[in-house]
Amino acid sequence: MNNIISIANQKGGVGKTTTAINLSASLAAAEKKILLIDGDSQGNATSGMGTDRSSIKEGNLYRAMIGQVPLEKVIQPTALPNLDIIPSNQDLIGIEVEYIDIEDREKRLRRLLKSLDRQYDFIIIDCPPSLGFMTVNALVAADSLIVPLQCEYFAMEGLGYLLNTVKIVKTNLNPSLSLAGILLTMFDSRNLLAHRVSEDVRKHLGDKVFKTVIPRNVRLSESPSHGLPIILYDIKSRGAIAYMELAQEIIQGES
Q: C-alpha angle 11/201/164, rounded to 5°?
């Protein structure tokens, strides 16, 4: 079976897309076959991987979700040999309204992904900054969840809502869903508050927090504008090293 990991947090700007792109790339560099799904209508994972959003009008996640195009037809290769992507653009905005009266609408993505059985070692889903239709679909489709958590004052705000949503999904729609871990992001070692947030999160959530911490890193922030994951943009940067460590932590957790 494919190992499906959703990356979600309804709070924006916490590093979801950065994590989706760079974890996918780091797992691919570790010789795992990876599919990255851009589940956000903003299409940032798509552009961050160098895919032109204007060129995917007829081949994107929305077209597959509404049954207009087979899922296999919207998969595109990337600059990394082991990494494919299902791109998205603004077409995805309308799907929540279009599916409002459809029975079992929360299971649409899960059913689509069954057609990819055993083709990938990991499928990574980048979720939008909300707990709406696409995020719930991603949680129903997933085996596990990674929650990026910014090392700043409001880090814990909203986490309870997300974990409660996960509990509801687990109870009613996807009993096999598990929390892979909380990922601390944007960590500034010079900032005392960042250390306090890290300590508080580890105190309350213990081994549910990844050992790997993603630092604030200029090169990591620059790489999406070049359409490259950090390991192709600057493999020696602290951001690249951190995401490669996270990939190894996840691989080891699977073994």
A: 50
Rounded-to-integer distance, Cα 102 and Cα 78, Å: 33
The DSSP bridge pattern shows strands 178-187 and 209-215 to be: parallel
111 phi-psi bin (left φ>0, alpha ψ -120 to 50, beta other):
alpha
Domain limits for position 219: 3-254
Taking a C-beta distance cutoff of 8 angstroms, is the pair 219, 234 a contact? yes
H or E element in which residue 180 lies: strand 178-187
C-alpha span between 135 and 28 (Å, rounded): 24
Cα–Cα distance measured from residue 24 to residue 254, given in angstroms and rounded to the nearest whole number: 15
**What is the Cα Rg of the chain in Å?**
17
Let me know the angle formed at the C-alpha of 175 by 38 and 75, rounded to the nearest 5 degrees: 20
β-strands 76-77, 83-86 pairing: antiparallel
Asked if residue 159 lies in contact with residue 149, where contact means CB atoms within 8 angstroms, the answer is yes
| Both tokens assigned to 35 | 């599919």
- pLDDT (tens digit, 0 to 9) for every residue of the chain, 255 residues total? 569 999 999 888 899 999 999 999 999 999 999 999 999 999 999 999 999 877 788 899 999 999 999 999 999 999 999 999 999 999 999 887 788 777 788 999 999 999 897 899 999 999 999 888 999 999 999 999 999 999 887 777 778 888 888 899 999 999 999 999 999 999 998 888 889 889 988 998 899 999 999 999 999 999 999 999 999 999 999 999 999 999 999 999 876
Report how many domains make up the chain.
Answer: 1
